[in-house]
Amino acid sequence: MTSAPLKGADLTEVGPLADGTGTAQSVRPSRPRRRGRSAPYWFLVPTLTLFAAFTVVPIGYAIWLSLHKVQVKGIGLGKGARQQVWNGIGNYTDVLNDSEFGHSVLRAFGYGLIVIPTMLGLALLFALMLDTPKARSAPFARLMIFLPYAVPGIIAALMWGFLYLPDVSPFYYLLDKFGLPQPDLFDGGNLYLSFANIAVWGGTGFNMIVIYTALRAIPQDIYEAARIDGASDLKIALRIKIPIVMPSLVLTFFFSVIATLQVFTEPMALKPLTNGLPSSWSPLMAIYDKAFLQSDIYGASATAVVLALATFVLSFTLLRISDRYTREDRA
Q1: What integer is the mean pLDDT of 29-51?
Q2: Which residue of 40, 81, 127, 198 has the smallest Cβ count within 10 Å?
Q3: Alpha-carbon separation of residue 240 from 69, 222, 245, 329 (angstroms)
Q4: Do 287 and 307 form a contact (C-beta atoms < 8 A)?
């Protein structure tokens, strides 16, 4: 009696059994069927296509525009009177020599000096308070703190803008009733506080959720050991919780720095409500003003490229500094 060949096997040797009653087959399993190794890459095609169409191509087009300019012949009328010509780094030179753009960058940094420490400090404080064992109604409190982040930025800016107006704001009515001074929140340095208030109100909840999630990932055994050693909640927060969630704080800090350099919604929404806000108050407002009000799309593209490079260099530098100090602490 001969054995049936195995499914998927190659017959390589046939010979008599030791007792001479039949034959034995030495089989070698065949190679498994090759599956398409390129299948995972096909799943990336839709994402890569969208990324290329809406990120890579616009960036490349902006760089291309930043290297050109319009040359006007005569009075600029008629066919061929306005031609696009090569300008090299001329637009970038104009951007670096533009004092108005420099002032907008300084205003953005001043705005960030108010927003970032205040927002991250409140986010850390709320996260630590909600993570304590004595915290009551923590889910409801988390929702209330996070809820302003769900409000669209333009709606939040308009809402606060009308609250800043003396004629319609209930705050000014109460200040008048109690005989208290009524500051002009659209004048001078108060503008920084007005914009910072909107950003802090809307962004604290998001940063709080990031830090709170990191706190919840800490093993409870660490807290129990610290309490056995006599550590109070304050010492646990300062010596255990904050050092452990430091990577989350660094992450939220980077996000906040980038958002500060790209501030646009708040000043743009409040500009119609006051005459004291210049059209180029922030870097993005300066780009918008140059592109759509002055019709200089080439200079605006160069300004956008400069701002993007500055944001990248600043973020990369801060990340390297943070990474170096983190490694030193671990060592």
Answers
A1: 78
A2: 40
A3: 57, 8, 9, 14
A4: yes
